[in-house]
Amino acid sequence: MFYLFSSVSMIIMAFTLVSSVLSLGFTLAPYVTALNARLGDVVVISRSWFGPITRSQAALALFCVGVVTSWMVTGHWFLNNVLGISLCIAFVSHVRLPNIKVCALLLACLFVYDIFWVFFSEQLFGSNVMVTVATRQTSNPVHTVANSLNMQRISEVVVKKLDLPLKLIFPRTFWDVSSGNFRSQYLMIGLGDMAIPGMLLSLVLCFDHRKFREHDNEGTFSRGNKYIQFDGCGYALGMIAALAAGLLSQAAQPALLYLVPSTLGSILCAAWARGELAELWSGPRPIVTEKTSFLEP
Fold first, then answer.
1. Distance, CA of 163 to CA of 194 (rounded, Å)
2. Per-residue pLDDT tens for 92-122?
3. Global confidence as pTM
4. DSSP E strand boundaries for 107-160
5. CA-CA distance, 159 to 161, in Å (whole number)?
6. Do 103 and 203 touch, CB atoms closer than 8 A?
7. DSSP secondary structure string, 31-99?
C-alpha cells in the first residue's frame, strides 16, 4: 500500500464498493427481519440467481446501494464511518477465534506491528508508513468518468478524492471560528484497531454465554458479573488513553499500544482472579463420547 497504492487503488475501490454494500446489508438484515416478523412480507421476484427475493430484501438492497452511492458522490465522513462500522461488524461476525491463546498471540504480534510502523518506519523508509497509507485518498471513479465524458455538472458536484472506509474519521473541530471555514483536520482510527479487539470481545461474549448456560440451573453464574463487562470497560479506557495521547502529543499514536493491555490484560486478570484462566486460555473442552465396538454383543 505504501509503494503501490496508486497502481492498485481502482482495484481496492472496486472491492470496497462490493464489500460495503454486502456488509451494510448484513448489518441491517436482522432489524429488517424482526420488522417483517411483525408487519409481514411478500415475495416480489420468485426466481432469481439469489433465489426468491422479498419486498424487504429488495428495499434493503436499494437502500444499501443508495448509501454507498451517496458516499461516492459526497465523500462525507459520516457515511464513511457508517460503511466502516458495517465492514467491521461483518468481519467480527464471520471470523471467530477458538480461544484466548490464539487471540493473545494475534494481539501481541499486532501490538509490535503497530508500534513499529508508527514510531520506527520513518527511520527506514524516510516517511511514516502507517500515517502515509492511512491518510491517502483514492480518485473517485464517478468524477473520473464524468470528467472524461465532459459532464461538467456531474464533475462539479461529485468529489474528486475519497477516503476509503478502512478507517473511521472524525473532524477535530466542526467550525474554525478564526477563519469561518470548515477544517479538514481529522482524528482517525483504523478498522483493525476496532476489529481485532472486537474479536476478543466476541470471544469473551461467547464464553459468558456458554458459562451461563452451563451454570443456569445451578445458579452459580451471575448475569451482572460477566467478562464482557471487564473487556468493554478496558476497551473504553484504552480508546480514551489513545485519544488523549494523540491530542496531547499532536502526533499519530498506535491505538493497539493502549488497547491491547487494557482489553487483554483486564480479561486475563479477571480470569486469573476467578480461577478460570486455564479454561478461558485453552477454550472449551471437546465433548468425548464413548465408542462402542462392533465386536461387542
1. 18
2. 999 888 888 899 999 999 999 999 998 888 8
3. 0.81
4. 138-139
5. 6
6. yes
7. HHHHHHHHH---EEESS-TTS-EEHHHHHHHHHHHHHHHHHHHH--HHHHHHHHHHHHHHHHHH---SS
Looking at residue 46, its pLDDT comes to 65
**Cα angle for residues 224, 230, 231 (degrees, 5° grid):** 125
Q: Which amino acid is at 38?
A: R
Closest CA to 84 of 6, 1, 19, 174: 19
Cβ burial 227-238 (10 Å sphere, 16+ → b, else e): bbebbbebbebb
Q: At residue 58, what are phi and psi to the nearest 5 degrees?
A: -65, -40
Q: Is 113 helix (H, G, I), strand (E, B) or coil?
A: helix
- pLDDT averaged over the chain? 81
Distance between CA atoms of 171 and 168, rounded to whole angstroms?
Answer: 10
User: What residue spans define the domains of the chain?
Assistant: 5-282
Give the three cell numbers for residue 94.
464471520
The stretches in the chain having pLDDT less than 70 are 39-41, 44-51, 172-185, 215-225, 284-297
Question: How far apart are the C-alpha atoms of 106 and 196, rounded to whole Å?
Answer: 8
Specify the DSSP class assigned to residue 1.
-
Burial of 275 (0-12, 13-18, 19+ CB in 10 A): exposed
Q: Which residues are catalytic?
A: 114, 193
| CB 111 within 8 Å of CB 242 | no
Q: Which helix (H) or strand (E) holds 45?
A: strand 43-45
